[in-house]
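Email to the structure team, subject: 9192_t:CDS:1 model.

Hi all, the expression group asked for a predicted structure before they design truncation constructs. Nothing fancy, just the tokens so they can compare against earlier work. One-line instruction: predict 9192_t:CDS:1, return tokens.
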Amino acid sequence: MDENEFEFIEDVNVFGEEIQFRKGKSIQLLEYNVENDQIILKKQALDIIEGINEPVAIIAVVGSFRRGKSWFANVLHGRHDGFALGAEVEGCTRGIHMWDTPFLHNGKRVIVLDCEGIDEPQQSQQWATKLFILCLVISSSFIYNINGIVGKADIGKLFLMNELSRYIHPPSNCRFLPRLVVLLRDFMLKAPNDFRTYFLEKLDEVNVEASDAIKERFADFEVYSLSFPGVPKEKLQQMDKVSTSELEQDFIVDVIAAVNGIFNNLQPKYIGASPMSGISFAKFLQECVRSLNDPENRIQISVPDEYESVVEYVAQKSMQHCNKMYQKLMESEILQHQLPVLWKDFSEMHDRAFSEVKTEFFNRVLGSASQICEFQQEFHKMIEKNRLMFHERNSTVLYQHNRDLGMELWKTYVKHGLTFESIFQTQEDFEGAISIFEREMLDNMLEGPEFERVMLEFKSKEYQDAADILQLYGILEQKHAEEMKANQESQTKLLELTAREQELIAKMENLKKEHEEIRINLEMKIKAMDECLIDQQIQNSQIFDDLRDDQNLAMAMLRSEEDEILSLQKQIKELKSNKEYWKKIIAEAVPILLFGIKIFINKYIK
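Reply from the structure team: attached below.
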């Protein structure tokens, strides 16, 4: 890769070779206030992290000061410069810095953390311990940068590995520690057959407990050696200005091998069996800092407690985000189609929005399968509340549309014949007008429960009023008037039952589709969680057994939601039975009813 290729991007010192260049700059993630022993997070950095939708992989570069940590953090971005370097006795990095442009690698957004050197001359032991513990807890890859000799003065805070239980309360049902990577800097000895074995042997000589703890807690850790860079001492103090061509070839080969090895084994930061996204990691970081800032905690982080806070926080944020997303999608659909719409079209609009937001919700939400199922139930109630709001909007407009159309048709075909000036001359004239009115109603009104309700109102008022007027003028025989009025109760009841039946059927069909959508998403989430545990190379069979039990519980919870569908089916069955009763009564009266009325009634009793 030619360094000149990047001159148009920014003024940088590109490493080149096989390491991909990443643009961006260093910003501070957090600082330490020594006066009040408080860690302070920076809003700009948190905002960048929270904006990441993909799984995040956190690489923390930790170790003693003046050992080239920041330079190696730069090389992870394919450059010599970026994170600040310095030649002073005190280290240059204060607190923790991060790259302001997390880059994408194999589906993960990578955030590299350049951490303040451990055991700097002016650094308090309290802060050094907090820094080490914090980096260990929040990272998915923990790069510890030390002198290749591995003497007693070089291991820094690695002795804390055998005291982690003092500082970290671990979860019992998942792996939480990062992948450990040890960088042996300026290694000038003959290369051993196995650097892992070499490192542990040397660590045994200075701290057996730390060596045993690393073997126990980091079974698959990696060790890479970096030979001497091969540049004069004065240039070592300004490695950000050294070009790759000035470095020893062996050193370049070592660096490339280390960087490639780190990225090849890079995993996202997990919370249980799910990868963290930006918003969940930002919350986890905030909770860890809060714990370390609490003087009563005595530099202790309870990972299960922090996980629970993150899971609940992410669930609530996911619900809010997806609920707003559903509202926007439905508003967009309504703007495109204009109300009123047929209920079939409304159902399709809702299905499209529901499918999209459910997928988004399951992609975002964290926790165990049973927790996710509970969150899903809560979220579904929110969506249903919004769906009913949009449903009511359409129903109101649909009803008014049908009502206005009905009044116009009544005015056109019937009302004029009920005035003194143009009263129907015969009963047959009235029957003909009613016949045309009902045909037009059936042909032009928009179908749905609102249609039945409009017709119910006409039969309860307009039909009754018409019968009274025509009977008053002697046009409608008393016998027919009484028959028509007597039959209104039966017709009204049938219309009410039909409207209610349509609503329940629509609700049931909607629930069936939503339930299937939820089931598919939950099964996909469970499969992804299984794959995450496999990726974490967890060997504890009890964790898998607990996961299976929880997944079975989640699916049982989901099946329990089918009770509502069964209840609706029972209600619909009862309605159909009641409808048959009223159909029978109306059918018995059909032969003596007016012809026009029979046309409408036949729609419901055939």
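Residues 400-498 form one domain. The radius of gyration is 37 Å. Ping us if the truncation boundaries need rechecking.
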